[in-house]
Amino acid sequence: MAQSKFTDLAILSLPLRNKFRQIQTREIAIFKGERWSEFSPFVEYGDQESAQWLKAALAWANDPLPALKRTSIPVNATLPAVSPESVQAVLSSFGVFSTVKVKVAEKGSTVEEDIQRLRKVRELYPEAKIRLDANGAFDVETALDLIGKLSDFNLEYFEQPVATIPELTQLRQKLADAGIALKIAADESIRKVSDPLVVAREGAADIAVIKVQPLGGIRNALHIAQASGLEIVVSSALESSIGVAHGLHLAGALDELHYDCGLATAALLEADVTDNPLLPIDGQIEIRSVEPNEELIEKYSAAPDRRDWWLQRIDRCWSLLES
């Protein structure tokens, strides 16, 4: 079986401080090669997509890493779809920050609730840059409506407001026609398509959000970032600090880095795999390796049925990589 090839393989269920992407716990697998690595596609992802995450985890564990151009990375805070009353408590976990990404279009929420959350952020943090992320959940007209209602916010950019590349292109054209200078970032339209460079070729976005695991590894992610010609934001996929370390190294290897990166997401976890997590200090996170704590591994080990599910998943993904 594939998992017999992994050293110190552990399946963990880490609690979150607040519900995020409709989940309250984050299930991950960690293992050791030359360095500790993480395999953590979300549980709803199919095997073909998840195999890319396994490829990335294996590469991080064993392959040489690209040279660094910097030793720490500026990061943004991330605000889940919480009530206005919870905004300050959630964002306090990030310490000092100059940028906050606000989740909108969460299942079960309304545009008006999104606006109330955003207005609370602006009230509490009047100097912060605000960027939005809809995870592709809006249609073009709803996205335009929200943007219009936030005309006084001077938004930094809007990440994946709509689902498809043609919709992104249409939205950008409508914004240009209306004289609205708002940058559009692509995330799912890069990591969930067969050719991650289509977004750039079609002129569908200004910014590429790059994540190591979904793109098959740090070197492939670095190539996509460079080949796209777009401005780059490196982000995490709600990983533990081991997974966040992958993204930090990628951000550190880029020639240019003009935006705060979405790599402070360990602050969204109630528990991590290490007693020295990758959390921001004065808006920056140092690029460094992470060693898990055995007591934390034992404490947050997944239930037997979930462990079996993950082990079977690893076997299937391994088979896809070998085929």
From TrEMBL:
Gene Ontology terms, MF aspect: metal ion binding
Assigned keywords, A-Z: Metal-binding
Keyword check for Metal-binding: yes
Keyword Membrane: no
Chain ranges of the Mandelate racemase/muconate lactonizing enzyme C-terminal domain: 84-178
CDD domains hit by this protein: OSBS
InterPro entries per UniProt: Enolase-like_C_sf, Enolase_C-like, Mandelate_racemase_C
Name the UniProt record assigns to this protein: Unannotated protein
